[in-house]
Every structure is written in structure tokens, then in C-alpha cells.
Amino acid sequence: MEYGTRDFTQEELFRFLDNLRESGQINMYGAPKVMEQHLGLSSTEAKDVWVAWTETYQTEGDEVN
């Protein structure tokens, strides 16, 4: 899928977010802005990817589907 200035796979974008999360450098609510700045995604694209990524994490007590 084409995002921003180049084609990124969802896996690449999620890996970027995973690495950012693991670095502990920012609060992940700021991740869409980082994706805009570093990957050239639009605000809408970055937010859509971030929401999809957050949905891969289940909250404690939720069953895995």
C-alpha cells in the first residue's frame, strides 16, 4: 500500500511502531506525528496506521481471537 512518499507494507509500519515503543523515547500517543515527520505519511494515514497497530494489543483480561 502506498503511504506518504513511498510504498510501505503494514508489517514495515508496525515494525517501525514496535521499535519506537521499545525505545521508550516517546509516549506512543505521539507516534502518528513521528510517522508524519520520519516517514512522510499524511496526518490521516499516520493516525489510521497507529489505530490499526494499537488494535493488535489486547488489554489484560481480553481473550485472544
Characterize the structure shown:
By secondary structure, the protein is mostly helical. The chain has one domain. 54% of the residues lie in helices and 6% in strands. It has three helices and two strands; from the N terminus they run ββααα. β1 and β2 (6-7) form a beta hairpin.
Which key terms come to mind for this protein?
3 helices, globular, 2 strands, mainly alpha
Question: How is the topology of this model organized?
Answer:
Layout lengths: L1 E2 L2 E2 L2 H14 L7 H9 L3 H12 L11
Antiparallel strand pairs: 1-2
Helix pairs in contact: 2-3
Produce a short descriptive summary.
This protein is mostly helical. The protein has helices at 10-23, 31-39, 43-54; strands spanning 2-3, 6-7. The mean pLDDT is 86.
